[in-house]
Amino acid sequence: MSDTLLRISNLKIEGRSDETWMPIIKGIDLELKKGEVLGLIGESGAGKSTVGLAAMGYTRDGVRITDGEVLFDGVDLVKASLPDKRALLGKRIAYVAQSAAASFNPAHKLINQHVEGPVRHGVMSRAESEEDAIRLYERLRLPNPQEIGFRYPHQVSGGQLQRAMTAMAMSCRPDLIIFDEPTTALDVTTQIEVLAAIRDIVDQFGTAAIYITHDLAVVAQMADRIKVLLRGEEVEEASTKEMLSHPKEEYTKSLWSVRSFKRPAKPAIQTDATPVIRLKDVNASYGQTPVLHDVSFDIHEGRTVAVVGESGSGKSTAARCITGLLPPTNGTVELDGEALPADFRRRSKDQLRQIQMIYQMADTALNPRKSVGEIIARPVEFYMGLKGREKRKRVDQLMDQIELPASEFYDRLPSELSGGQKQRVGIARALAAEPKFIICDEVTSALDQLVAEGILKLLAQLQDELKLSYMFITHDLATVRAIADDVVVMKDGRVIEQGPKADMFTPPHHPYTDLLLSSVPEMDPDWLTKLLEERGRDNVGDMATDKMA
Amino acid sequence: MVVFALTYHSCRVSLRVHQNPIGKTNEEHVNSVPKIIAQRLLLGLLTLFVVSIIIFTAVNMLPGDFAQAILGQSATPEAVAAIRRDLGLDQPPITRYFTWLAGVLQGDLGTSFAQANFASFVGEDSGTRTTVADQIAPRIKNTLFLAGVTAVIAVPFAIGLGILAALYRNSAFDKVSNVFTLTSISSPEFFVAYILILFLAVLNPWLPSLSNIYDGMAFSDRLEKTMLPALALTLVVTAHMMRMTRAAIINLLASPYIEMARLKGMKPMRVIVHHALPNALAPIINVVALNLAYLVTGVVVVEVVFVYPGVGQLFVDSVKIRDIPVVQACCLIFAAVYILLNLLADILSILSNPRLRHPK
Q1: Which InterPro entries does this entry report, sorted A to Z (chain B) (predicted)?
Q2: Are residues B94 and B172 in the same domain?
Q3: Do the Cβ atoms of B279 and A107 come within 8 Å?
Q4: Which one of B260, B285, B350, B353 would you mutate to disrupt binding with A, by most A Cβ within 10 Å of its Cβ?
Q5: Based on the domain organization, do B44 and B108 belong to the same domain?
Q6: A200 Rama class: left (phi>0) / alpha (psi -120 to 50) / beta
Q7: Closest approach of B163 to chain A, Cα-based (Å)
Q8: Do A4-257 and A292-519 have matching folds?
Q9: Which of A439, A241, A247, A267 is nearest to A352 (CA)?
């Protein structure tokens, strides 16, 4: 037997769009030795997941393999019959999906889903497999390994589910696991636990893996080799160390340099200036559940305040209080020194105009039936009262500002735009009201790094031109570094720490800020190892217990 | 029947909007199961009360009147008035409604006009008047028997067919079963019934075409006599249930957890039955309940064709002779069955949601 576990040669895959088949993967070669971890990186649309699934001989609906070979331990999965493939899937090749919350069946307990593979493939009896599951849960440092499997997926937190899914993938001790963006949906602090757990267990069992991600820093921790994909083609492949230190291709270099965008923070504010937005001891609750506790911070003219924290920390709830969508139970929101009515329905049109919002999912925030021009024209007419030619002139001007010329884009529908272009339309729609203050709710987190950088630059430029104030909600500290003047750190509905960016990024920090900062993966391939040593293993385990819902 | 459906559903919809217990991931909005069930029960009772008002109003708006109908054109005004007084028809509607409601609450559905009138007209009150309950009870029993037999055949058949159609979607089998069930639901019921009689009773004398069942019949005889109408009803109700099963399952096939099951090497049948079906139960249960309610409340035509002594026939006969207490009682029973089955469906679909069964 040779050392090679998986060999993909000249793989070509097509996807159907409307009635025609378009190439998605244009001839990829890939080789994986036993026990080796290959990182597959690229932006969205590069075909990473498609290649990952094809390595299992699987294609999604509307996708077909047109050419090439996928040789797994001598079996060509492209030509193999369905029953032959089923005999391998789950048993010798396993899959860990991006969202464990969506990929665990909500109707069954974790343990039942775990033992399904071993029992159905005849690897173990149910009892054996259950015992084994508990051992795997232990190894992956899940809290209460004896008991956690007997819960339903909705009763377990996201980071724990992701580890339970890794345990499930391990259930038959496969030779190969495909990890498809397993930590993308997690907070940075949770991501670390999952990365450490995955790395350990893959190491212990000598499992080969293909690790798919768009996050370079993450892949640097996990992979022996890295392969970079761009629009279905390979850009280059090298060992992790070499790839990080000496990328050959221009595209790879550009990916590496994305995180370097940074604009200087503005000088500190005079304390006597009236802030554009001031939150004073704001408390809010959903039904009976309190979610914000005495939240206070100021946002001054022409400045960007980044509000950071993990999911559930109350960042978006604070935004909802400012917009009046969720009236606070206590405390006030001031605009230019004047208290705003709590409920947006009782605010004047001018007050509404001054506060605008840009959303995370540009996709769902734009009306799919309206053209770009109509989407931007609507607030121009509603807030500014412009009609006819004047309205059109203003829309053209706005579209110039977002660098989507009206001549080309006015009549397009949102579905005909790329993700970044859609987000630009969202920005223009907010600008159309000529607001003082814009809430940017995770506006770049759904975008690729290069595109995100473009959006951040545009926002910075608009701020300088129009003296805008931003509240920038994000969980990505790289974004904070790039764009913020001031930082507010939130946890469990409370403000933990706030101040100018420079102060926040220089020690000493609040312990929680420290945890957040140190959890952001760095390009150094040894970063995770060092960090875990610094924190001490037990600490990571404790954090996991803390995070139990 | 439409009226019940509309009122009941509008209430249910408005409740859903506020609570939306199903499919909501936010824990704040998930109530405990007993609380939700108690709310549904209360709502059901409230609906029944509203429906009782609608029934009473609607029945009293029927043109014609029992006294006039029974005495004919040549009746003297005095005779008509006497009968009206005897039956309490001279009371104002509000009084009559509450008298009726009070009776119903005590389990007394009243006395059939047809029976009562006969006694008082002849002038001798024997004291053994037939109550509405006596009259309806055997009919209800028959109707429930027919509905039960049909349900036992139709529900597994429809859901099985739906599962197979989802498994072999877009295949010839899928298309044929779709066309077949759609054809049978699109054809008038009497037509379906006569076709069955033609093939299963006339051309091949396998089953009796007359379903004249009576008390004290052996269960097997009863079953045999009921078979044809049950088959006819099966054909009528299968399409909805089968198509909903198919659609609800296919709807889930793009879910990540289904992909995961496939990537674990599970066979297609197991993917559908074990992984998709449990998550598709809520819509299926609701459609099954609607169709079961139809089996009790909407079977008049099929009963007539097969001369089956069910409550539908009684209902039609009573409307014809303006026997108001019987009509009202039938309506109320239909409404109660409808509400009860929907309530049951609601509770079952709530219970099919593990988020509600096992809160955090």
Answers
A1: BPD_transp_1_N, MetI-like, MetI-like_sf
A2: no
A3: yes
A4: B260
A5: yes
A6: alpha
A7: 18
A8: yes
A9: A439
Domains of chain B: total = 2
Same domain (yes/no): B103, B145 = no
What is this model's ipTM? 0.76
Q: How far is B28 from chain A (nearest CA, A)?
A: 7
Q: Is residue B14 pLDDT above 50, yes or no?
A: no
Summarize pLDDT for A213-256 with one digit per residue, the tens: 888 888 888 888 999 988 888 888 888 888 888 888 888 877 77
Give buried/exposed letters for A251-277 (b at 16+ CB in 10 A, else e). bbeebeebbebebebbeebeeeeebbb
**What's the confidence (pLDDT) of residue A544?**
42
B63 and B176 housed in the same domain: no
CA-wise closest residue to A422 among A469, A357, A390, A375: A375
The CATH code of the domain that includes B199 is 1.10.3720.10
Architecture of domain A292-519: 3-Layer(aba) Sandwich (3.40)
pLDDT digit string, tens, across residues B314-330? 888 888 877 888 888 88
- Name which of B26, B249, B263 to mutate to probe chain A: the one with the most chain A Cβ atoms within 10 A of its Cβ: B263
Chain B residues with CB-CB distance to A under 8 A?
25-26, 28-29, 254-257, 259-267, 270, 275, 278-279, 354-355, 358, 360
Q: Which residue of B has its CA nearest to A174?
A: B264
User: Across the 549 residues of chain A, what is the mean pLDDT of every consecutive 10-residue run?
Assistant: 81 84 88 89 83 89 88 87 89 89 90 92 90 88 86 85 89 90 80 84 88 86 89 86 83 71 70 85 86 90 88 86 91 90 91 92 87 93 90 93 89 86 92 93 81 87 90 85 88 88 79 82 81 68 42
Instruction: Verify that B118 and B79 share a domain, yes or no.
Output: yes
B207 shares its domain with B297: yes
Q: Which CATH homologous superfamily contains domain A4-257?
A: P-loop containing nucleotide triphosphate hydrolases (3.40.50.300)
Which among A154, A160, A165, A212 is the top mutation candidate for probing chain B, defined by the most B β-carbons within 10 Å of its own β-carbon?
Answer: A154
Residue spans per domain, chain A:
4-257, 292-519
Q: Decide if A292 contacts A331 (C-beta within 8 A).
A: no
Residues 6 or more apart whose CB falls under 8 angstroms from that of A480 comprise A306, A308, A472, A474, A487, A501
Q: In this model, does residue B273 exceed pLDDT 90?
A: yes
- Inter-chain residue contact B278 with A91, CB threshold 8 Å: no
Task: Report how far residue A507's alpha carbon sits from residue A501's, in angstroms, rounded to the nearest whole number.
Answer: 12
All residues of chain A having their beta carbon less than 8 Å from the beta carbon of residue B264 are 89-90, 94-95, 116-117, 120
B104 lies in the same domain as B161: no
Higher pLDDT: A353 or B99? It is: A353
The distance from CA B225 to its chain's CA centroid, rounded to whole angstroms, is 21
